[in-house]
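Hi U.,

Before I forget, here's the chain from the pilot set. I'm dumping it here mostly so it's searchable later in email.
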Amino acid sequence: MKKLILVESPAKIKTISKFLDKDFVIMATMGHVKDLPSKKIGVSMDDKNITIDYVTLEGKENTIASICKQASTCDIIYIAPDPDREGEIIGWHIAQEIAKVAKKGAKVYRIAFNEITEPAILEAINHPGEINIKLVEAQQARRVLDRWVGYEVSPVLWRKIAKGLSAGRVQSVALRMICDREQSIRSFVPEEYWSIVGNFAHNKAMIAAPLTNIGKDKAEVKDEKTATKIVADLKKEDYAIDSITDKVRVRNPLPPFMTSTLQQAAYNLLGFSVKKTMQIAQHLYEGLPLKDPTTPVALITYMRTDSLRIADTALQQVRSYITKNYPSGYLPTKANVFEKKTKAKTQDAHEAVRPIDVTLTPDKIKQYLPADEAKLYDLIWKRFVACQMKSAEYAQRQVVIKGGVYTFKVTGSTLIFDGFLHVYQEEEEGEKEDKITLPADLKAKNSLTLKKVDPKQHFTQPLSRFTEASLVKELEKEGIGRPSTYVAVLNTIRARSYTTLEKKRFVPTELGMVVTEMLVKNLPEIMNPKFTAMMEKDLDKIAEGELERDTLLRTFYATFKKDLAAFGGKGEGKKAVETELTCPQCNKHKLAIRFGKSGEFLGCTGYPECTFTSNFARDEKGVIELKEAEAPKLMEKTCPNCSKPLRQLKGKFGDFIACSGYPECKYVERKTLPFPCPQCGGDIIERAWRGGKFWGCSGYPKCKLAIFDPIEETPCPQCKWPFLTKKTTKDGTSTHICLNKECNYKA
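Structure:
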C-alpha cells in the first residue's frame, strides 16, 4: 500500500524518513502553494458571501504538479504541514489540488506533531484527523483583514505622502508604539533629585547606607541647596543601629521558553536578531546531523508557540535527569507548572519550546552543530532543565540606622542555595541581585560613627527606545500579533524606511512619524492597540468555533470602509509638515518637511517663488537643525573613459559611483557578477528600479535576464547553470533555485 506524507519544508524529509518503512514517500510543499493575487485585492463581498480568490504562487506550479502526480498513485495521503494556522491553510490548499487527481477510495488525512521524533510521528499516523476548517477560517480572516488594510490604505498614503509606502494591521500599530515612545522621549523634561549615602564605621568595617526617611516622610531631596543643608545636619547627629531584620528571599525558576521569550533571551544574551533566532530554531526543529552525517536528528519542539505547557513524558524525563545528574535537593517534590501573564490567549495545542531529548546535553552535541545553532540549543536546554528545579534562596539582612530624625537603610543579600541558578542564569527586569556585603557581627543598638556623607546629583531619565526584544515583549504584553507574525512585523517596519536602528534601538524616521500621525488621525480604530488586541482574540474565537469568520470580517469592514472613504476623499495634496523655522533664503515663509524620491528634506512653503531646500537632522529633544548637503566624495580610482577621478554620490536608489567629469562624461560604475550571462554571454550588472535593486543582463533589451533574489555563486548540480538563486520564506526556510527553465532544480 503506497502512502504519501506532505510536509512544509524539505529539511524535514530526511529526519522523518528514518522512522518510516519503504511504503512511505515524503514530499515538501516548500511553504505556501497558494495565496491572494499580488496585483489585486482578491477579496469580494456581497450581501450573501465573502469570496476569497486564491492563485497559485509563482514558481509553485511544478511543486503542485509533482505532488499531485505522486498522490494520484497513493492509497493514503497524510497532509502534515506545521501545527498552526499557516500550516492548516497550506494543508487545505494542497488537499484541494489532490482531490482533483486522487484515485477512487484513496484516503486523505491531516496529521500534526510538535516534535519530529519516532513516537510523535507514529502517534500522528496512527491517530490521523481531518483539516480543521475553523483554523483555516481563522487564517483566512487574518489574511483578509491584512489585505484590506494593506491594499486599501497604502494607495492613499502614496497619494498623500510618497509612493511605495505601506500600511499594515499589526505593523502600523507596532510603528505607532515606536513613534509614541519617541514623542514621550522628546517631550520628557528631566527632574533633578539627589541621593545621600552615609558611610558608617563599625569596628574595622564600613557600612554604606542610603538616606531613606526624614522623620516619617520619605527622603525626597530635590536640589543642591536642600542636599547641602541635610548633609550639614547629618554631621551633627549620633547614630546607632535601630533594627536588624533577617529573612530568606526566594527566587523562583523562569518558565520554559515560548516564541517571544526565546526571541528576547536570544537577543539579550546571544545578540541574535529576532529573525536570526527563528531561522536557527527552525534548523533545530527540523533536524541536524550529529554523529552520523547522513542522519539528521530533530533537537527541539515546534518553535512557534505561545504555550508554557510541558508534556508529561518530557517532565518525567527531565525530573529523572535532574535526579541522576545533580546533587540531592535540586528536584522539587512536584513538577513546576507555569501560566502566562500576558493578555494573549494561549494556544494550548502546542508545548513550550524545549529539547526533545534532555539527555542530548549541549556538551555532547556542540561539536556537531554550527556555532550559532549550538548556542541557541544550549540556551533552550538550560532554560528547560532549570524550569524544573527548586527555587534559589538568599539570606537577606536589612539594617536600619537612625540618628535624630534621619533614617538610613541598607540591605545585604547572600546566595545560600543556588537552585535553578545552578543551570541557568538570566537577570529579569527588577531582578538584579544586590552585591552588598554586611559585617557579620552587627547587633541592634550598636553605636556607629558617621565617617563620610556622599551627596550625588541625579536627573530622571525618559523611557528607553525599543529594541527588537523589548518591542516583541510589548507587543506580546498588549496581546498584539502572534508567534508567527513578530518577525514579519519587525522586517516590514525596517524595510519601509519608517525606522532606523541606532545602537540596536528603533528610532522612527520623519516618514514613520508622519505616516503614523496621519493614520491615527484618519483611521483611529485600526491604529488602536486595544482594538488590534481584541481582533487577535476574535481570530482565536474563530479558530475555536465561537465566532463566524464572515461575521468578524463584515463588522470590521463596515467601520473601516466608512473611515477609509473619509480619509481617501480628502482633496489635500502631498503631506508636508510645517516647522517653526523661517526660510533663510526668502525670510518670508516657513520651512516644511517634505518627502521626495531620495528621502526627506526641508523646503520653503513659498515654492515655486522660493526654491530653497536643505537636509536636516533632529537633536535628542526633536529640535530641527539645518545641515549642509555632503559634497560628493572623490575617490582614488579614475574614470576608465576620461581618466578624471570617480566620485561617490547619493541617488534615489542609494549610493553609486560616477565620473566627476559629468555632464561631459556620463560614466557610471556598475557592479558586475564574476560570471557571464548564461543566455547571451554578456555581463550581468546591478540595476535599479523603483522597487530596489536587481541583477540584469547588460544586453537588455535583447537579453531580458533579470534576477531579483539573492544569488548563490554555486553552479547548479543538475545542469551546471553558473549560479543558483535563494528564496527565503517568512519562517526562515531557504530554497536554492535554478533559473534555467529547462532544469527547474530546487533544493
